[in-house]
Design brief:
Radius of gyration: 17 Å
Bound molecules: pyridoxal-5'-phosphate
Structural class: alpha/beta
Number of helices: 8
Helix content: 25-40%
Oligomer: single chain
Strand order of the largest sheet: 7-6-5-4-3-2-1-8
Order of helices and strands: HEHEHEEHEHEHEHEH
Length: 237
């Protein structure tokens, strides 16, 4: 099997898992979008996934996003352009590579970050990342601080909030992650009850290769899947 065939095969398997999880949860077919996490993968890997029908790609590193975007933007042979999402930590000096450049920035977790994205002056849809488990070293806003951060979107002219995102604590058994996914959905339901300018909480970005079924059972609208499509990544630097 070539690398391109392996990627097409991985995508087909993940699509089947998503469809089965939608059915099992009694959800409408096609209600969950697949974000292919192409972090550490090459532009050729993204080309292979595009050829196999994948549209949306998630990157964790701002410069890697910038380089891959540039490489593929010049490629007129693609069946359709990739839709880029940013799912990594957002440092203020890297915001220029992300703000106004991606369909969705999944990792906004502070008012300072929100204002830095706004200051770039380009339209940008965001998700707010929530640290539902209250893990000390993890990114994401504390659930108790979420209402105030959502209120801040009212003062923005360029940045909008389209939903919430979570990275749950690592669990051996994927079902053990379910309470964290449920907690994000509960927060979404609670905060949706309050109308706020520039905030429409339609997306729940949750679920990865190991636990996408549990996330879909709890209402995920976007699953972020890397390993199950592209295979193992090199160790993170
Ligand atoms: C925020 C985020 N979501 C999803 C993924 C994909 O994880 P997996 O390879 O387990 O599917 C990663 C991988 O690094 C990630 O950082």
């Amino acid at each position: 099997m070539t690398r391109a065939e392996a990627i097409a095969d991985g995508l087909a398997q993940v699509r089947e898992r998503i469809a089965a999880a939608e059915r099992a949860a009694g959800r409408v077919s096609g209600s969950v979008r697949l974000l292919a996490v192409s972090k550490k993968m090459t532009a050729d890997d993204v080309r292979a996934a595009l050829a196999a029908g994948q549209r949306a790609f998630g990157e964790n590193y701002a410069q890697e996003l910038r380089d891959k975007r540039a490489a593929l933007a010049q490629d007129s042979t693609l069946p359709h352009p990739p839709e880029w999402h940013y799912i990594g930590p957002l440092q203020s000096n890297k915001i220029k590579y992300v703000a106004g450049q991606v369909a969705l920035a999944h990792t906004v977790d502070s008012a300072a970050l929100l204002e830095a994205i706004e200051a770039r002056g380009a339209p940008q849809a965001c998700l707010v990342q929530v640290n539902v488990a209250g893990e000390g070293q993890k990114r994401g806003i504390a659930p108790g601080d979420l209402p105030a951060l959502l209120d801040r979107f009212a003062a923005m002219s360029h940045v909008t909030c389209a939903g919430l995102m979570v990275i749950p604590p690592f669990t051996e058994n994927p079902d053990d992650a379910r309470p964290y996914f449920a907690a994000l959905r509960t927060l979404r339901d609670r905060e949706s009850a309050r109308a706020r300018p520039h905030v429409e909480l339609r997306e729940l970005s949750m679920g990865m290769s190991g636990d996408l079924e549990a996330a879909i059972a709890e209402g995920a609208t976007i699953v972020r899947v890397g390993t199950a499509i592209f295979g193992a990544r090199q160790r993170d630097v």
